């Protein structure tokens, strides 16, 4: 670089001299071209330098991202969910569009089936999933955190006989397990044909024939 | 003079603040969630009410804007009776309401019914003045 700089300065001086000598003769100095070439070269150099910087920066981001992807399942104690499923306390959940509770979880419990007309991607049976069976308070909180305000979802809890709730895997709903957690009190009547609906704040009893989004749940890998 | 009158007219046809104008109405989409009764009380002092939907255009707009989120609208019914708007007029059933609940909510899928306990978003409406 020093050499090049020196050369340029020399050249420029020569140029200047040449110009002074040829004053009035209207001859363009050939070393003007040298200067232009030098300028163009340095421009290209700077451009390449900038591009390299940008590329390095971009690559750095890609590296960061791939690291995050690897780390995130590790944080969840090695449990993995397929694409678009959310990891919730060793289980994976997936949100499905408005259906009645029965449509969301029809027939052969604990696996839910959908009407043939519903989109295959929402077909719980094909996904080998079922409406959530919530066994711990942590699990409840974890599912509630994933719900956006104004989009409640069906869970696998329903009234079998007046006042008696049961999970779809036939285990009874033991409210005493949740006695210290007011958010698992079920708001609303518990007469027949009631199903449980979960929002970010509470659990409600709703008519099973109402249409709400569903939540499908299955074990993580 | 005509221009002045026109500009005055367009000014008065706009909706203020967080209200969105469609047709002859202004609509407000809540960010918060409440049960139906609490949603009905909200804004009732300002000449607005839980959304009344009179036209297909309004319905399409509301459904599109609601997306996957559920929003209360101003329709309810007593057991065995027909749907009524909050101003006590009976719904001329030009759209369907699914389910057997007594309080209506709306999302992109359409209008559904619920028991009214759940905390979801809501939509208010008021006429443009």
Automatic annotation (TrEMBL), chain A:
Keyword Oxidoreductase: no
Compartments reported by the entry: Membrane
Residue ranges occupied by any C-type lectin domain in the UniProt entry: 112-217
Keywords attached to this entry: Lectin, Membrane, Transmembrane, Transmembrane helix
Membrane-spanning ranges: 32-59
Pfam families reported for this sequence: Lectin_C
GO molecular function: carbohydrate binding
Membrane topology recorded in Swiss-Prot or TrEMBL: Single-pass membrane protein
UniProt KW NADP keyword: no
Any one Gene Ontology cellular component term annotated for this protein: plasma membrane
Name of the molecule in the record: (raccoon dog) hypothetical protein
